[in-house]
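Why this split exists: single-chain examples teach little about how molecules sit against one another. For that reason, every record in the complexes split bundles all components of an assembly together and asks for one structure covering all of them. Below is a record exactly as it appears in the raw files.
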Amino acid sequence: MKAHSIPLKRIAITRSGDKGDVSNIGIIAFSDALYRLLLERLTLERVKQHFKGMVKGDVAFYPMDNIGAVQIVMRGALGGGATKTLRFDQTGKSMGVLIQSLEIPFSDEELALIPDRPPFER
Amino acid sequence: MNQQSTPAGARRRDKVRLGAGAGYWGAEMEGPLKLATSGAIDYLCFDQLAELTMSLLERQRMKNPELGYIPDLASHVEKLLPVMRDRGVKVITNAGGTNCPSAMTMALAIAGRLGFGGMKIAAVSGDNVTGLIDPLLQQGWKFTNLDTGDDRIEDIRERIVSAHAYVGAEGIVEALDGEADLVIAGRVSDNALYVGPLMHEFGWSYEPEFVDRIGSAIAIGHIVECAELVCGGMSNLWKVSDRPWEIGFPIAEVQADGSAIVTKLPGTGGVVNEWTVKEHLVYEVHDPRRYMMPDGVADLTSLRLEDLGEDRVRVSGGRGAPRPDTLKVQVGYMDGFIAEGTFLVGGPDVLAKVRKAREIFEGLLARAGIVPIDLRYDRIGIDAISGDMFADPAEDSVRECGLRIAVRVRTREEANIARGHMLRVTLYGPVGLGWGPPAAVRPVISLWPTLIPRDAVKLQVDVRRAA
């Protein structure tokens, strides 16, 4: 079995927001099967590693089975929060885009789960 | 246009149509006015406060005691009054900011001048808890910083600009029970703008039997509170969003059981489907099973979404838990100054020129004896968004970049010196550094998120009829 690395953008959409110094990213999978795969493969370690230079605090996941989404909550993520940070992107709206390049391992047969295009572009 | 007064607890309508008019300060009025004119809505709700806004408005109020509300409110009221009368639409806004009484006086004057006598306008105040900090500290309450765990608020006490509690819908309900046509509130939670009219219309209370319906209302409020942003704004669906320049504003048609259909005004641009609703369901939520709000705790994982097509999504199954005994408070305090400048770096040797520019800036700061609290460089086009996530490109592959320098220092004097030195980086350094807009200095208001006992916060509701 050959392993493949699939960027998140091919299997989910994302949106990020801020509360103080906490950045959250909602990852919404394109299907139930991809959601289950995401729950298994989108590990805290992978996310921490992806944002290692940016996120200083804890990272937590909250699953939303009802909409096939995972909520990622990252503390100490915005340079102190929108009002005092020196980040150009003060509120971390770009965090949701940055995570789209995170690579998720897929097996050969799992590649069939990936749609040619997002379900809303059909 | 006022309804007959109805006993508390009685249902006034079978369904309520809520329109969302704004999710930010600076929103335009064309969309909301269309919604009020032809959306057959009962209420139009405006959220214009972000986390920092109360501190900005409080600084304005300290300079002039008649200010402190969102200045746009005056022109909004003027534009909304005719359609409120003609269509019987009631308006609920948090644009009262830190001075709802003054905003009400302004709105009453406009209504009187334009011939809308009889219109009832309400101010909901009491969210300003600055005066409660010292007495509660003396009673042993710890205003622990929810972000950092720091419980020494005494250390910033002298620098506090504002402290406002996120209050729930009860003031809005009282104002609507008092037959207000326009409710001007301050720091109510964003979704309380939507929970309030539902509680009023359906006769809900905070009694246990209503927790699931209030949980549903919080979820629905959350879905539409950023207004047009659930209709394909700021969206992954940007390729399929129809005519974004004519983006529609959302309508939530809510049933008495707390279920709703989320849609937008027909014929407008944008898109509403299960994906745009999901995008908003995850927006700025931490634990989705316990989305904690002053009116209750919504379980966002209990919701069922059903895409009905044609820009309609049914939302049902919402559950909730009783409202917490504490309210979240956002304390704003002065915390130094930021100087910020951006200029362009032309090739060849872009990356080397940036390194030299940094060296010069830091040399100038050291010469001035300035030790920054925080210092950051962004190479726009290379790492302004991604930081150190990726390795640098090869020097000869970079044609040009923007260089942004931002520095936080303790005093305005230091910030002004740093701003001057930003220009000097381009003058004393390599050829090909082009300056753009002048560097700027701004004061920093840091936020100290904390909790306060609910019982300590007393709301005041004032309803008056325009002359």
